[in-house]
Amino acid sequence: MNRLRSALWLPLFDDLADPRVVARLASDAEEAGWDGCFVWDHLCWRAPVRQVADPWIALAASATATERLRLGPMVSPLARRRPVKVARETATLDRLSDGRLILGVGIGSDRFGGELSKTGEQPDDRRRGRMLDESLAILAAAWSGEPVRHRGEHYTVDDITFLPRPVQRPGVPVWAAGFPGNVKPIRRAARLDGFFPVNLEHPDQLAEVVAALTGLRQGEMASYDIAVSLPFDADPLPYAAAGATWWLTEFDPGVRLDTVRGVLRDGPTSPGGD
Q1: Which helix (H) or strand (E) segment is 105 a member of?
Q2: pTM score above 0.90
Q3: Burial of 67 (0-12, 13-18, 19+ CB in 10 A)
Q4: Do 12 and 53 touch, CB atoms closer than 8 A?
Q5: Whether the Cβ atoms of residue 165 and residue 193 lie closer than 8 Å to each other
Q6: Most C-beta atoms within 10 A of its C-beta, which of 86, 182, 216, 270?
Q7: pLDDT tens across 89-141, in order?
Q8: Omega into 180 within 30° of 0, i.e. cis?
Q9: Which residues pair with 70 in a beta bridge?
Q10: φ/ψ (deg, to 5) at 29
Q11: CA-CA-CA-CA dihedral for 248, 56, 144, 224, to nearest 10
């Protein structure tokens, strides 16, 4: 069994809505032996949450406070963001962190705070899926360092070269999120660098996902990541056996800082060994 990497997965609300607090947590996590620190990407959330931090600023602060930890938004709904702006942000953050960025992406949802409907974003899941795929194509082209010429259904980029490039080549690793029973997210993820199945209920579900991805990727899974979110007191071993390479700690929205610090102090669980 390969080593299962561990990461904090922080909702940037209320107690965690201060980038200095997040950066300190990331630094402490690195010292305690954690492998990553990922953050939620939301504009708003339902009550009682009141305060929300920007994920990119929090990640930049964390990058300057750490040296080894992998970092990234998990996940960023690209359909409500401009892909050219994300291209600049990801390249800059990857350089700031010396090549430690992982970009988690998904179509987003309006269920938890109305952040799509309240801001006039695209409400249709299928259209957001097409916007996501188009954004991913633009990002890959931008990270190449070659001139980008794109005219699509939703976006236009007319002969822009995005330099400097990210440290990582050919670009920043991308993990796609999706429900394990949905075919389209799995097919999307198979073309990328990792999959983050949400709302997993049992390791057998993960084993089915891994089997599907292995088939779609024609067995090329050696450098591919499968991330699962689990409560800190859950046993990650069955998920590691089913093919998980990362586990992310689940925290409730609005979690208190003392709770996160307690989990951090207890240290990561890392079955399998190096």
Answers
A1: strand 103-106
A2: yes
A3: exposed
A4: yes
A5: no
A6: 86
A7: 999 999 999 999 999 999 998 888 899 999 999 888 899 999 999 999 999 99
A8: no
A9: 36
A10: -65, -45
A11: 0
